[in-house]
Amino acid sequence: MRWPSASLAVSSCALLLAGCGGAEQTTPTPRPPRIPADVVQRLAAEADLIATAQPGSCTARAAATRLQSEAIQAIQSRRIPPRYQEPLMNAANGLVARLSECTEPTRRTEHPGKHGKKKHGKGD
Question: How far apart (Å, rounded) are the C-alpha atoms in residues 75 and 61?
Fold first, then answer.
């Protein structure tokens, strides 16, 4: 007769434990808001261009300006959740401010005589 009472005790404990843990699992954690994939791809493409461009170049500045414009457009069209709007604009504005001036790389000029070419003066 001990087996039925032991079985009843184990079943009661199992039900008790299942009941205790069940309350926590019924409340799902809220998922963070999502940014649409096409918006993320456009912003990431400009960010990648900035990262690979020569620091201080006009290419980097132009990409930063496009990133800022894309961010503004996405926010105005409500495609960026409110939680991400301020950090996104702060980052975009910071890039534009840091890259506000650009310099194109100077081209290397060949000096006469170094590569076998000589400039001829008058009378040569």
Answer: 21
Q: What is the pTM of this model?
A: 0.61
Within 1-124, where are the H helices? Answer: 2-25, 37-52, 58-76, 82-98
**88 C-beta neighbours (distance < 10 Å), count:** 20
Q: Long-range CB contacts (< 8 A, 24+ apart) of 65-72? A: 65/96, 67/43, 67/92, 67/95, 68/92, 68/93, 68/95, 68/96, 70/39, 70/42, 70/43, 70/46, 71/43
Q: How confident is the model at residue 116 (pLDDT cuts 50, 70, 90)?
A: low
- For residues 46-76, b (16+ Cβ closer than 10 Å) or e, as one string? bbebbeebeeebebbbbbbbbbbebbeebbe
pLDDT at 7: 43
